[in-house]
Amino acid sequence: MNTSPSPLVVEAKPYVFEFSLETCALLIIDMQRDFLEPGGFGELLGNDVSQLRLTISPNQKLLSTWRSRGAMVIHTREGHRSDLSDLPDAKRVRGRSATGIGDPGPMGRILIRGEPGHDIIPELYPLPGEPIVDKPGKGAFWSTDLHSILQNNGIRQLVVTGVTTEVCVNTTVREANDRGYDCLVLSDCVGSYFPEFQEAGLRMIQAQGGIFGWVSDSAKLLAVLK
Ligand code: TIU
């Protein structure tokens, strides 16, 4: 007799996403001060952080409900060692910016672990016991122990939120897909500095029958978590 509980079913594109809270983790990508706060690295690169800040409130509501259901939460942060030994030269010089990774900025050294700007915004701060994955690249799997953490906790599916949609979220979803995870991306909980990339970044996940995963929004997920 099959005694496993029936899956939760979320309305999504290209078709419903079915999951169980025991085998699904909420993966929040890089909601760091350097990307989201005025004066951080993102703004220094010439970006409008207000687009990303729209994702804070929906992420707060989702995180609070997800925690209340006792399901797994994992946070990631993009950044580097203070001696820059894990920073490829290609990444360091990219953009030809006068100020780059490791240089002093308004919130400490830019994208350096332990500096204020590298940390997660207070609105979504991790609770003790929630794993924080520090990643040197755009994808959350490359050069991290994320896959091992997910495997050890029996996780097969991911709800992915965070920033930015077309960079770290998309790279992570592609990495996850090739490792056998199902990913549900929530459109109002992921953000891009560029509206056209937000739209394309979401469309390319769900295209071709869900080539990389599913797309829905936080209201539809919250409706099945109540
Ligand atoms: N987290 C993440 O997306 N890192 C980036 O550098 N994104 C940009 O869009 N620049």
Account of the 3D structure:
The protein is 33% helix and 21% strand. It contains nine helices and ten strands. The chain has helices at residues 33-36, 41-44, 50-53, 56-68, 89-93, 146-152, 165-178, 195-210, 218-225; strands at residues 8-10, 17-19, 24-29, 72-78, 104-105, 108-109, 132-135, 157-163, 182-191, 214-216. Helix 4 packs parallel to helix 9 (218-225) and helix 7 packs parallel to helix 8 (195-210). The longest helix is centred in the C-terminal third of the chain and has 16 residues, at 195-210. The mean pLDDT is 96. Bound molecules: tricarbonodiimidic diamide (TIU). Tricarbonodiimidic diamide (TIU) binds at residues 30, 35, 78, 138, 163-164, 167-168. Residues 30, 35, 78, 138, 163-164, 167-168 line the site of tricarbonodiimidic diamide (TIU).
Bound compounds, each kind once, are: tricarbonodiimidic diamide
SS field, number of helical segments:
9
Number of strands: 10
SS content category: alpha/beta
- Name the beta content range: 15-25%
Order of helices and strands: EEEHHHHEHEEEHEHEHEH
Output the strand order for the largest sheet.
7-4-3-8-9-10
Gyration radius (Cα, Å) is: 17 Å
Indicate the overall shape.
Answer: globular
Q: How would you sum up the major sheet?
A: 6 strands, parallel
User: What is the straight-line distance between the termini?
Assistant: 28 Å
- Low-confidence spans: pLDDT under 50, at least 5 residues? none
User: What is the helical fraction, as a range of percent?
Assistant: 25-40%
Oligomer: single chain
Mean pLDDT: 96
